[in-house]
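This section describes the prediction task in plain terms. A model, or a person checking by hand, is given the sequence of a single protein chain and must write out its three-dimensional structure as a string of tokens. No templates, partner chains or ligands are provided. The sample shown here is typical of the held-out split.
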Amino acid sequence: MKVIKINDEYSGRREYTSLELCAGAGGQALGVEQAGFHHLALIEYDGHAVNTLRLNRPNWNVVQADITKWSGVDYRHKVDLLAGGLPCPPFSKAGKQLGSDDERNLFPAALRVVDEIQPRAIMIENVRGILDNMFQDFRLDFQNQVGALGYKGDWKIYNACDFGVPQLRPRVTFVALRKDEWKHFTWPTRIMVQSPTVGETLKKLMMENGWKGCLDWARRANEIAPTLVGGSKKHGGPDLGPTRARLAWAKLGVDGLGLANAAPGPDFVGMPRLTVAMTALIQGFPASWQFSGKKTAAYRQVGNAFPPPVACAIAGEIHRALALATKQMQAA
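The expected answer:
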């Protein structure tokens, strides 16, 4: 099975600048980087996620800050792409869906930063619940406010498995560009390659400690994973989610009641549990990406992440649009 490398298509491109809000463990930031952007700064409040970013990319300018109090005025007219993974609980079906009434709604803060920085493009990801009819006025109001700042944009839902990620993970992205540059942007199309199964993805890690039953398990785990859940600080923990999610994992031969500290031993019998490293592969992170903190804190970072290959595909089209707009401006 061919595995999609997130840096294949966009390697060698001219770098544009980017700034990341609510960067988390770096899923979106990694994809944006692979699409050809150079991060000027990554803003993140959670200490574990800040440590993860610094651990994996010591050269990144990681700023630990609350974006409701952070100002972007020092970056005005210096940023090509302002990207962010704003908190999902205000719109998640797993929560109360309070939207703009939720104290965790950071869309107003992001809008203020857009006004301060004046980037050429905007990219914000969130859960599919934000497309529910109950949030239609919220989406329209946000688009109108972005439009008043000189941009044109739209919302789009994608499934991570459409871009080679071994997981059913629908995510919504809002993309906007300056009104005179929006015409150059097209949404990416899904890759024409089947995503690897859970067994194919995790076989190597499951065999680390010599588990004799690994190959049989991998053959039975012959579908892509359900959506990874459990990233919420209020409800999430070191397991793969509520009863419905655990039942879906059980069909793949995985015990979702908790996470393991290590791969199964040689004589293990039963359904194995995933390690944090295994869930990271399911989320589309490269095997080299490390997560700071103990098991619960590390898994929350994985569970909240935007799969890098999806971020790369969307950011790659933004990169292409900016390049076309720049070329047209230079030719004028």
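For orientation: The longest helix spans residues 308-331.
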